[in-house]
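Sample 1 of the test manifest.
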Amino acid sequence: MRKTKALALAALGTALTMGLAACGGSAGGGGNNNTGTGNTGAASTAKHNDGYTKVVNPSDAKGGTLKFAYSDEPDSMDPGNTYYAWNWNFSRLYARPLLTYTAAPGEEGLKLVPDLAEGLGEASEDGKTWTYKLKKGIKYDDGTEVKAADVKYAIARSNFSAELTDGPKYFAEYLDAEGYEGPYKDKDLANFKGIETPDDYTIVFKLKAPFSEFDFLVANPQSAPVPQAKDTGLEYEKAVASTGPYKMESYEVGKQLNLVKNENWDPATDTTRKQLPDRIEVQFKQNAEDIDQRLLAGQVHADLGGTGVQPAARAKIVADPKLKDSTDNPYTPFNRYAMMSTKVAPFDNIDCRKAVQYATDQVATQAPWGGPLGGDIGSTLMTPTTVGYQQFDLFPNGADNKGDAAKAKESLSACGQPNGFETNIAVRGDRPKEVQVAEALQASLDKVGIKATIKKYPSGDWSAQYAGRPDFVHKNKLGIMIAGWGADWPSGFGFLSQIVDGRFIKDSGNYNMMELNDQAVNDLLDKGIQTTDAAERNKIWGEVDKKVMESAAFLPFVYEKTLLFRPSSLTNVYVHPAYGMYDYTWLGVQQ
Amino acid sequence: MVAFIVRRVIAAVLMLVIVSVATFAIFFLIPRALGQTPEGMASRYVGRDATPEAIQGAVKRLHLDEPLVVQYGRFAKGIVAGQEYSIGPRMVQCPAPCFGYSFNNNQPVWPTLLDRLPATLSLAIGAAIIWLVAGVSIGVISALRRGTLTDRLAMTVALAGVSLPIYFTGLVSLALFAYTLGIFPGGGSYTPFTEDPVMWFQALVLPWVTLAFLYAALYARLTRAGMLETMGEDYIRTARAKGLKERTVVSKHALRATLTPILTIFGLDVGLLLGGAVLTESTFSIPGIGKLVIDAIRGNDLPVVLGVTLFAAFFIVLANLVVDVLYAVVDPRVRLS
């Protein structure tokens, strides 16, 4: 009797618990309240990679809550203080720079269009002065009008202060503002001579040297205006003065960001954004595998990081044609490669470098990235989505890309090491994919007699202490270094300058790990950046690429790709080529 | 009793000082001894391609160029008297106890810890109740029915509970109960009790059960072993000989004696969990102290790691103190002296 009673009570308790949970399964808060609007919703006819070439689920239907989840947190939500690729995409929801990219898939999306500005920049004859005119009547979310001085202040704070350290410092590098200490130390903005604002709607940038791609620089979020009176420095990320279609409702750092519609945004002034969902919610620091499960269940709409699903979900998706139809496989801005140090023997001999080029099994070095879905086998520095990319292959390593042992042996003989040699491969030890690439390369080289030892270093200090320090590289005989690079703007110069310009070889934090200082390459870079004709300029970037590849010091592995999942509840989905992920300013949700 | 507590509190404070020095040494002294430069450390907290000037600025802002003794002194002084920090246009006061500013997200550590505490408390206390009740009950039943099918089944389940890692049971339970059956909400659905008690409960059921599964298994095995030993004692035979009911013998005599070591472990386990249930919070994306510290470790956010370590140490010391006091309550043979 007692046992029966106890069992009945236990059953009742369980039923109540489960019933209570089931009843409230669609409650709000920061949780998941849209079960049923996901992949079980209206059937989509979209196929795999449709979002790469066209807009999937086009709709102008308004309303609903767009939900993002992210496994990490941003460096900052302040548009002036962020270097995260997704945030340069996402921050456009509340911050409008002077220029932005065309809202379109494919090559069209790489073209710059005016955003806050009336038109593209007007360069002076000498290419050192760039002028932009602001559209009139653009307002912040509090209703005050955006003025030219706000743009000047935004660039001053993001590039010249000791506190805002997370974003790039291109303006500090290129503007003629010697001695300026930033607006936090020097409160008089007139002392910032790098930018002039002759009236409320004109901004004039004064450069140290001609820079024909300056338009790309002002398309980064640092040119979004900041009213000086509202700047709270490091805390500004919690209350950004919005110029975009959304404004911040609340931001709990490391937990949750909520955006709501900005009533003072005027779509007539904005050709690149939509304002469809009523609300946008972002959850930070979420379990990456669980984000995938929630995506597949339709409980979140997009993984904010834009780096694609994790291996477990990838396997599940690839095995199911229906799920695969809900995915896109775009290029990211990244090239994954190895650099051979031209200062470490025997790689000071070009033929020894060529031996590595020919011996590498590129199918094996592609595998750790996830095979063809993880990236296309590369043969150049620039990736296919870089403006100026030209396809060529100077070191074909067999019809099947698995290495050409005969040519490798020839090169070894030419470099005076017919039986091979010993070297070291440096890799970031806490990056499993890169370690697997190093192991695949080691196996490839071993087949032709090159004995490579893998040396692992922590990624946190990789650039400052190890592979980015030439003296460390020389001392430890690091012949080959596994690395990756993505451009800050999708042009040849944006991609190439930091990693191939010999004048950028630094004692620490060096990205030209080849230590290639070729006068011809440096001259071409100078010529290109001073060339105003875009077609001519892009041709020059191709020439730079070829020149560097001729040195055989750059060993490309893959043009990285990612696998993005789009729940059927998501509308207006397309891959923006400038960001390599969905255009977050276009997304809507089905009701 | 009062003298005992005062002595233990003084010892606890000393312990926290030692823990803080040790943690500080691990994260600041050892890297320096291994050749890490202030610039190398600072480069982690600035953007890609940071200029030497920007890195130098970060060195100054984070005081990484100061001697370690001065850095520790600054940290300790902040706990007692607070500190001032520059956020750009102005200085802000970080009132005592100021555990410093996060290197990564520029937030003061102490309010962040307090913000994360309710989630961890919710998780730890709920799970503790479940595992204590379930674990002890199963252990007692198992001991009383030693060798039967019930005993074997219970111990097999207990073995599974001990063996399966939380990130496995957690993800499987989410896949089954949240994403397939839709009975419970999925990961990342934790909502504070003050905002929505029903959602708070629903979101915590799976994490509670997952966490409790591991501990209940341990407690069941411990209780079973303790009960088996106690039931063989002479005083149990005496109690039975006096004609006491079996239920009284088990609950008032055997279980009470068995509970003493269980209580010790329970106190320590709860204290440990209050410092963060790292795996459970990470698996279910619960914004608690465990999630905070694992993210801080991954991001080399030293002030947060230091803050959480001290916070966790405080709870363990406190739990020990409470356990010692409760000893006397549970077992009259123990006297505080």
